[in-house]
Specification:
The protein is mainly alpha-helical. The protein has one domain. 76% of the residues lie in helices and 4% in strands. The protein has a two-stranded antiparallel ribbon with strand order 1-2. A hairpin with a 2-residue loop joins strand 1 and strand 2. Helix 1 packs across helix 2, helix 1 packs antiparallel against helix 5 and helix 4 runs antiparallel to helix 5. The longest helix is centred in the middle third of the chain and has 26 residues.
């Protein structure tokens, strides 16, 4: 196992966090896009708290992704750079998004909101993979 690239871990978490601000802000943060039920909209009463929790969890995710890439090794990743995207996107598609959708079905979140959130997690994980590739 090679060393974890801690610079890439922090930059990847920051990049995914910036994407979240754009994704859930100007892109899909409109009240109409986030409507959960007739007359109800997902509202954040304390956005700074949500941002802090999101940042911490993205850092945890990025650290685990950095550890995963370190286990593969720099030589293998240099020879097969697509592994950054295959593995980061695969984590989102095989674990994160299904878990999200399972939770959303239990609380009856509309498909539109579930698709917006799933799109973020796929884009966010691919962004983290791209950062590891660029800083690898």
């Amino acid at each position: 196992m090679g060393p974890v690239n801690w610079v890439a871990v922090v930059v990847a978490a920051l990049a995914a966090g910036l994407l979240a601000f754009a994704w859930f802000g100007p892109l899909f943060g409109r009240a109409k896009a986030r409507k959960v039920a007739p007359g109800k909209i997902l509202a954040r009463s304390r956005p700074e708290r949500v941002a802090a929790i999101t940042g911490g969890l993205l850092l945890l995710t990025s650290a685990m992704m950095g550890h995963m890439f370190a286990r593969i090794g720099a030589e293998t990743l240099a020879a097969k750079p697509w592994l950054y995207f295959m593995m980061s996107g695969g984590l989102a598609l095989a674990f994160v998004i299904p878990a999200l959708w399972i939770s959303f079905t239990h609380i009856r979140v509309p498909i539109r909101v579930a698709m917006i959130d799933a799109g973020y997690w796929l884009a966010g994980y691919l962004t983290m993979g791209a950062v590891f590739w660029l800083l690898g």
